[in-house]
Amino acid sequence: MAEAAVKEKPANAAETEQELTDGFNLIIDSLKLNGVKTLYAVPGIPITDFLRMSQAAGLRVLSFRHEQNAGYAASIAGYLTKQPGICITVSAPGFLNGLTALAHATTNCFPMILISGSSEREIVDLQQGDYEEMDQLAIAKPLCKAAYRVLHAEDIGIGIARAIRAAVSGRPGGVYLDLPAKLFGQVIEAEKGKKSLVKVIDAAPAQIPSQDSVKRALEVLKSARRPLIILGKGASYAQADDAIRALVEKSGAPFLPMSMGKGLLPDTHPQCAGAARSTVLAQSDVVMLIGARLNWLLSHGKGKAWGTEPKKFIQIDIEPKEMDSNVEIVAPVVGDIGSCVAALNAAMGANWPAPPADWITTVTSKRDENVAKMAPRLMNNNVPMDYHGALGVLKTVVKERPDAILVNEGANTLDLARGIIDVYKPRKRIDVGTWGIMGIGMGYAIAAAVETGKPVLCVEGDSAFGFSGMEIETICRYRLPVCVVIFNNDGIYRGTDVNNASSDPATTVFVKGARYDKMIEAFGGVGVNATSPDELRRAVNEAMDSGKPTLINAVLDPGAGSESGRIGNLNPQSKLKKK
Ligand SMILES: Cc1ncc(C[n+]2csc(CCOP(=O)(O)OP(=O)(O)O)c2C)c(N)n1
Ligand SMILES: [Mg+2]
Fold first, then answer.
1. Whole-angstrom Cα distance, residue 389 to residue 511?
2. pTM reported for the whole predicted model
3. Model confidence over 428-458: pLDDT tens digits?
């Protein structure tokens, strides 16, 4: 009898195992069922095994050095693909490190899900001092579009489905999903688990604008004597590239791309007014905003930059609350950008009247004048380099490689690169976004390379780079085709500040003559110290062609650069004399 029982046991155990599943597997199955292919993460308790199992199950897991960078990577993956980018972190500190990126995703309207492991609910709620104790759900809530916690394995499918739908539907944003440690190991019947999975159907349903709103918008546009179209990153996100181009071209209006709206139509397009920004903002009489918000980046639609001419605003946005945010919107068109632009195109018909010729001449002559003024500066061969000499080189590099993705952060490095480097295709320029945040660089570069398979060129201020610089190890480890160019002017804005009060360096300066190129050599990447535009050209071309992880220390004049780049006016001023 006893013998029979022993014999039976292994057979039963195997059978039981076949019939069971657990939290680990259900999370992986749910993500895979919904088309998730990549996780951006930093391992640790309670997610180390989860990441191993995900990798074994065929998900690509990019393991970072800091959660903030993994989070930024996930956020931009969401922007580039219209699928939520997934960042996975450990509890409390890892979660907090990822939280900046989650808030960033929400602010920038990028779909992203931050999934964090968390500690024992019973202990956290009684505040009994658990390992990495923190009420993460409560902390995440105000910083994202939605926040959920899953306590039972059979709810994992629904939890992930809710997170995906919340991230991508309507105006996209960040979603937090809290997964307590216990959940991963919870075991349920495999069949029950399978049935609990949810495939999200039509996660971001089309939102069709009303015909009235379309008609009203076109009446306003037709009445314009000096129309202007502004293309924001919402327009790029929409992936309605052909329809947007058709609308702009049919309208004949000058268009102004916001930073990440660049490339929807090439910056070299005859209607592009990028180089005549002040003129078009001040002098336009009707402005059509497509996926662009009237926030600080557009001076809130009022004040000096917008001139004295009365303006009428048409706004196309998926979020009704965006309308009248700063000024009156006379023609709101609410819906997803693709549907709105399609409806506008259809209603415009084939014979849309061209804007008055004198307006087009005013804009194009100003633009051509500014471009001509800039041209010789971009060809200078000064040593040490200035921004224009270095950017002239990079402008050509990108022109020759319109498929490459440009990542850009810094102050002067950002503002000048944005103006100088032309972008030719949609979603090829990714940068600091709505907050003007430093630290997106390496995370963005990694996700751009992984999600698109295209070469990536990062143009980084030396300060900006420091925020995510350790991820060059990640870039080397995964052998990603990323070329980082550091505009090294020895500091924040400039490297020339002096502190006369003590022997401490001034707050805006770094170690003089730092050799950032040496950093990547530690990880087997290619490091180059470039002191002239010619050296820079050679090094960047080689990196972009070889696809080898490369870091180029571009030595700039420490005196080059101005306080806060183009936004020095935002620094608070006091009437009292500075000490
Ligand atoms: C997270 C974050 N911290 C601080 C800042 C403030 N900030 C704006 S630009 C900048 C760095 C500018 O220096 P650098 O990247 O070297 O560019 P440069 O102007 O010298 O070309 C800093 C620290 C910020 N925007 N974001
Ligand atoms: Mg600098």
1. 23
2. 0.96
3. 999 999 999 999 999 999 999 999 999 999 9
* Residue 495 near residue 558, CB atoms below 8 Å: yes
Ligand nearest to the CA of 463: 1
Q: State how far the Cα of 285 lies from the Cα of 312, in Å rounded to an integer.
A: 6
**Kindly report the CA angle at 372 between 371 and 377, in degrees rounded to 5?**
90
Secondary structure of the chain: what % helix, strand, coil (to 5)?
45, 15, 35
Instruction: Using alpha carbons, list the distances in angstroms from residue 129 to 96, 132, 137, 184.
Output: 18, 8, 17, 21
If you measure from the C-alpha of residue 410 to the centroid of ligand 1, how many angstroms do you get, rounded to a whole number?
5
Which tens digits make up the pLDDT trace of 20-75?
999 999 999 999 999 999 999 999 999 999 999 999 999 999 999 999 999 999 99
Place of tokens 């049935």: 195
Q: Which is nearest to 80 in space by CA: 439, 444, 340?
A: 444
**Residue 563 CA: which ligand is closest?**
1
User: Distance between CA 175 and CA 112 in Å, rounded?
Assistant: 6
35 to 79, 160, 375, 464: CA distances (angstroms): 16, 12, 46, 33
Closest ligand 1 atom to residue 438 Cα is 26
Q: CB–CB of 435/107 below 8 Å?
A: yes
- Closest Cα to residue 71, out of 37, 96, 107? 96
Backbone angles phi, psi at 191, to 5 degrees: -65, -45
Q: How far apart are CA 450 and CA 456, in angstroms?
A: 10
Q: Is the CB of 434 under 6 A from ligand 1?
A: no
3-state secondary structure of 72: helix
Q: Which two tokens stand for residue 460?
A: 């980084």
Coil, strand or helix at 230: strand
